[in-house]
Amino acid sequence: MKYMVFLVVFLSLTSCVEIIDDLSFKSDGSGTFKYTINLSASKVRVNSILALDSLDGKKVPSIQEIKDKIAKYKEIISQKEGISNVKVETDFTNFILKIQCDFTSIIALQKAVKEIVLDESKNKKEIESYWLTWEGNRLTRSIPSITEDLTSRLKKEDIEGLKKGNYMSITRFDRPIEKCENSASLISANKMAVMLKNSPYALIQNLNLLENTIVLSDKK
Amino acid sequence: MKNIFLLVVCLFNLYTFGQTSDDLIPKEAVIVLGINNTSLLKKISMDSLIQYEFMEEVQAEMFDGSADNKTLKDAGFDFGQKLHVFNGKTNNYEVSGFSFGISSLKDLLLVFDDFDKVKSPINGIEYYNSYFNHLIIKGKAGLVLRVDPSYEKIKHVTDSIWIKRGNGYFFDDKDKKGESEGDDEIEDPLNKILKDGELEADDTEVKLNAKDIINKTYWELKDSVTNDLQVKYLQFILNEIFEKNVHLKNQDSKFATQLTHDSEGIFYMDNSRNLQNAKGLWYFQTMFPELFKDIKTLYSGNVVVGDIYLKDNAIEFKLQANYGKDLGKIYEKLNSTKFDKNVLRYIHEDCAGFFTYNINLKEGYKQAYDIIIPMLSKQKDPRVTSNVLKAELLNEFINLDAVFDTYHGSMFGTFNGVKKVKTKRIEFSYDEKTFEYSEKEIIGEEEMPMFTVGFSTGRADIPEKILEYMGKMTTRFKKTDNYWKIDDAIFNSIPVYVINRNGLLVITNDESLAKEHIDGYGKQALSGKQAKNAKKSKFMYSYFNIGEVLSKIPKQVFTTKQNKVLDSMRGKEGYIELTTINTSEENTDFEINYYFQGDYKDSGKYLLDLINSAFVLAK
C-alpha cells in the first residue's frame, strides 16, 4: 500500500499556485495587508504529498503541524509593534491560506516582517533595507533582498512547475492614482487600485517585474 | 613407479585442494552474487565501464586513475573463474568481500596497490592488508575480505573486562540503542540454539596484555577489543577456508548446485539464516527460545537461488524459492487453486501493466493452522497459551466458509495509463472597477494515473452489505444502478468506483470502466499470449510494458534523482514479465524476463544500465 501511495504521488501531475498580495493604504500611512495563497488547483498533489512521511529526504509535515506553525506565526505577528487585528483563515479542503493584519505605518509592517525573518532564519541574516517607501502621495515598491536569496535556491525543475501559477499584487489607496511607472500596471476603473499580474515563474526570472512607483492625486 | 605414484598424489592434491574462486566463499555468506559472463567483462573497456556511476567508487578504490586504456582483463583477473560478491552475518560478526580468479598476480597487485604484504597467518597463502580489508591469494584465486565484529559482541567483551578490573558498569550515551536492546545475555540462548562452528570462536577468551590495558580508558579498551576480535574472527574464517577446506560450496548443496550452472550470473540468498541472525527478533529469541527453535525449523531450507541469462534481446532471471517440508505443505495448499478467468475481462488488451495473483486462502489457512497451532500449543507461557486459545475459539466459532468465500485469496491489478479527472477548485476573480476579488468554485481537470484492483468473491452479498451500511452513514458513498461511487476517496479529491459483479469486487478510479465497461472490456479484453501466460502462471503473473509506462508519465512528476535513473531506461522499449513456473512441496520456480527492443549492442550493456539505475536509486 505504501508503494501504491508513492506511485500515485509521483504520477499525480499538475502543480499550480495562486498568490494574491493586497496592500490597502490610507493617507496617514496606515493600512491593511492581506496575503492569500491558493493551492486548490493542486490539491490532489498537495494531498498526495501530505500522505508521505518524507519527500526528497525532507520530512513532510502533518496538517496539524502546519496548523500549529500557522498559529505560532499568528501569535508572533500579533505581538509586533504597530501591528493589530491579525486574522488567519485556513481551508485544508481546498488548501487556501489567508493572512490579514492592520498596520500603523508601512515601516511598522516591514519591521515586523524583518524581525520574523531574522528570528526564523538559520544564519540570522537580516533584510538590510526597506522595500516599501511611502512619501504622502508616492509609494515606491522594490524587491526585498531575501527574495533574491530564496529564489536563487530554487531548483530549475521547481521553477518550471510555477509557470502555471498566478501572482497578483494589488495596492489600494483612499485617493485616486495619478500615474504608475511600471508599464505593466493595471489601474482599476475607479482609479483607486493598481494591480500587477504575473506568473510566479516570470517573477522568479525577473524580480523587477513587481517594482513600481505609484503617484497619487492630491485630491480625494 | 615411485615417481608415477608421486605424480598421481600431486595431481590428486591439486584437484582436491587447488581452490578456485568458488571455494573461497566463507560459509557465513548469506547472500552471494556470482558473475560468470566472461564475454561480457571482456567486451567492455574500462573507459566505458567507469562511466557508470556505480563504478566510480570501485574505480576510485582500485585504479587510482591509472586505468587509461586498460580493460578488466589487464587488471590481472582470470575470467575462466567466476567473480563472487558476498555478504553474511552471524550473531558475532559480519563478513563481506569478493572472490575471483587471478591470471597475473603482478598486474593484480598493481591494481591493489594500497595493500601491503604482511606475514601470513596461514601457511600456503599470500596475505596483504589495507586498513580493514584483507587480500588473500592462494594459487590462482584471490579473496578480498572484511570482517567486522558486531556491536553487541564488542560491548559484551569490553564490559566483562572493564567490570572484572573493578570498574562499574559503563553507560554509553552514544550507544543508547545498543543498551536499550538489553543485556548482553541474549547471546547465551542463541548460542545454544545455533550450534554452528562459530561457537568455537565465541567462547575463546579474549587475551589482552594486562600491562596494555591497565591504564586504558573504556574507549581505548573497546578499540583494543574490537581489533582483537577482528583478528580472531578473521583467523577463524581463514582457518576454515584454507586449512579445513570448509566453505559455503561444500556446506550448502544448493549453492554447490548453483555453481554448476552455465548462466551468466548466479544468485543465492539463505533466508533461514537471515531469520536467525535478525536482530529485531532478539526479544522473541530470548523469551521464547523453544518456540523460536520451532519456527527456525519451520523456516529451515528457506533458500532463494537464481540464474541470470543474457540473451540477444532479453535478460532472463530464473529464481527458485526453496522451503522446508512443513512450509512447503502450506504453500502447496495455498497454490491448490484454479485461475479465475473472470479477471481477464477487466484487463484491457492495451493495458500498460497488470498482475494476477491466485491462492487458495482457505486451504492454506487450514494447513497453516494444523502446523502452527500444535507448535504454539507446546508453549507454557501464559501470553502464548492465551493467544492459542483465542485462535482456537475463533476457528471454532467463526463461519470460515463465509470468510473464505468472500475473499478466496485471488486478486488482480492493472495500470490503465494517465487520464484527466474532474476536480473542484477555487479561483479568485476580481472586479475590474475596484479590483476587489471573490472566490468561486469551478470544475477543473487534473491528470491522474488510473488503477484498477479486483478480488474474486463467491459472496457478493457481504461486500454489498458493507457498502450499503457505508451509504447510510455518509453521503460520500452513492449507489447507482450498476456500481458504487465513493466521492473524494483518493487524496480527498478523486472519486473511486466499486463494481460488485461477475464474482468480482472491482475497485477503480477509472470512471470509464465503471460507466462504459461494467461487465468488462468485451472484445477489447486481454486475450492471446498474455492471457494464456497469466492463466498458466496460476500463483502470480505480472506484465509491465516499461517503454509505454515511462512514455505515459511526464518527466515533471519525478524528482531529479528519479529522472536520472529513469533516463537510462527511457527510449528503450521493452517489457517485464514475471511468471510462476511451478510450485511443489519443496520449492516454487519463478521467471522474471526483461525483453527489450531497440538499438542495443548487447544485453550486457543493458544489464549494466539497469544495475547503474538500481545503484543510483539505492544511494
Describe the structure.
The complex is a heterodimer of chains A (220) and B (619). Chain A is of the alpha+beta class and 220 residues long. Chain A is 31% helix and 31% strand. Chain A has seven helices and 13 strands. The model of chain A is unreliable at 1-14 (pLDDT under 50). In chain B, helix 6 packs across helix 11 (218-243), helix 17 runs antiparallel to helix 18 (361-377) and helix 25 packs antiparallel against helix 26 (603-618). The A-B interface holds A 4, 7-8, 10-14, 18, 20, 36, 38, 40-41, 43-45, 47-48, 51, 56, 91, 93-94, 96, 155, 157, 160-161, 168, 170, 172, 188-190, 192-193, 195 and B 418, 423-428, 430, 432-435, 437, 439, 444, 446-449, 451, 490-494, 553-554, 556-562.
Structural class of chain A: alpha+beta
Mean pLDDT of chain B: 79
**Weakly predicted, low-confidence segments of chain A:** 1-14
Give the termini distance of chain A in whole angstroms.
Answer: 63 Å
Oligomer: heterodimer
Main sheet properties of chain B = 21 strands, antiparallel
Into which percent range does the helicity of residues of chain A fall? Answer: 25-40%
- List how many beta strands of chain B DSSP finds: 21
Task: Indicate the structural class of chain B.
Answer: alpha+beta
Gross morphology of chain B: globular
Strand content of chain A: 25-35%
Identify the most extensive interface between protein chains.
A-B, 38 and 34 residues
User: Taking Cα atoms only, what radius of gyration of chain B do you get, to the nearest Å?
Assistant: 30 Å
